[in-house]
What we know:
Blueprint: H1 3-10, E1 14-18, H2 22-34, E2 38-42, H3 45-54, E3 59-63, H4 71-79, E4 86-91, H5 100-105, E5 110-113, H6 119-156, H7 161-176, E6 181-185, H8 188-191, E7 203-207, H9 216-221, E8 230-233, E9 236-242, E10 248-255, H10 262-319, H11 327-341, H12 346-357, H13 368-371, H14 379-386, H15 388-397, H16 406-410, H17 432-446, H18 458-468, H19 475-482
Parallel strand pairs: 1-2, 1-3, 3-4, 4-5
Antiparallel strand pairs: 6-7, 6-10, 8-9, 9-10
Helix pairs in contact: 3-4, 6-7, 6-10, 7-10, 11-12, 11-17, 17-18, 18-19
Fe (ii) ion is lined by residues 359-360, 388-389, 412-413, 441.
Amino acid sequence: MRKSKLKSLQNNFSILTLDDDPIMTSTLQAFFQRSGYHVDVEHEPYRAIERIRQGQYDILLLDFLMTPICGDQVVAEIRKFNKELFIILLTGHKSVAPPIKTIRELDIQGYYEKSDRFDQLELLVESCVKSILQMRTIQNYQNGLSSIIDSLPQIYHLQSLEHIMDSILGTAVSLLGVGSGALEIDFSAFETQNSAISGPVPMTRTTGQADTPPALRELLAQNAFEASGIIHRDSWVMCAIQNAQGEIAGLLSAAMPAPPKEDQVQLLQVFSRQITAALNNVFLHSVVSRKNEELTQAYSKLRDSYMEIINALRLLVDARDIYTCGHSDRVSRYCVLIARAMGKDEAYCERLRIAGLFHDIGKVGVPDDILLKKGRLTDEEFEKIRLHSADGARILSAISMFRDIVPIVRAHHERIDGRGYPDGLCGGAIPLEARIIAVADSYDAMTSNRSYRGALTVEAALQQLREGCSTQFDPDVVKAFLSIEDGAVYHLSQ
Ligand SMILES: [Fe+2]
């Protein structure tokens, strides 16, 4: 450290000299005051301890041999409440100095044998000053980093841009220990990833009172920013805020009386990187929100299309369903009731509702003279009707949104004993949804009037279901249907 620089710093340090010899204390005071230190004197050990407790001293120069207590005892008392004070012990002769062990234990920075010349003592004091400066720098880093860490939850918390900017600015002025600051950010640089000063007018926040800092545009035009991203101009220190691509997107300014110290520059750099990360976080979140909104809208449109297709197909089914009069609707409702009785979730019930609605859609391919025939069908006509489950599956497979009900529709005339159609599947090989439709379909057919027979009573139809268990129907499905407590459910077709 250059002498002149050290001299200028010495005004910031205060020394207390403690010695029961007034000549010694006044000599030391005169000597160190000439070097620029603030120096107080004290002759009584206990009063010196109190002054240290209450005052703001950086260095204590104290005699070893004193009454009523010696220098090492004074230091022992001070160390109970102050570990930071730098202490130099003065001795008349090294033979009366305390042992090295004591000096170490009491954290005494040095001892000095009194003489007419103070050169050596001055060197010791200067060494203390350097250590104190380093400690202050470390303390500044610690405080600054703590302040940055404390501010992170606020600047990372997703809130309005104004709030985020206020948090950033508040932390910055606190970091630099100043009262005035300004923050200007061009958010388009984060949003569009284009050049830093394109797009909307930058947002600006200020705190305290000071002259307006130089504008970002002006500084960019002058190519004023160096690698550190920090410059000092007039009474302002300014830190560039960059976007994720390293482009300058904003300016953090603080009114400072003097150029920033090295530790302040480094802390500002750390903080500016946090600002960049926080602002990118905000905009990533906004992009995700926007995409979510677009997806929601797209899903809503898809849902509308889905409903339109369902309605169109319903019209088709209804047109072929005049004779059976609402059969598909009722089957759909029975299916949902059975699925609920079996504890199935809403997605399952919805799939079954649609499958029940369109289970007979393949009948559009059956000629009217067969479908609407009054009287019994011939074997050949019946064979044509039997094609409807496979035809229905083929029709629905052309529409991607119905793909999950295709195997259900195909299997709705399969039987547990394997004597159904079109594939002759047995038991668990038949999709459960198809086994549910089989019960609902048969029950509704039995309780509806047909051209070739009248409707069965509810009890007779339920009995048919019971008798068909394990041959035509899945017993668990029949059991679930019979467990429905609301009696009105069984009369939908009447
Ligand atoms: Fe059918």
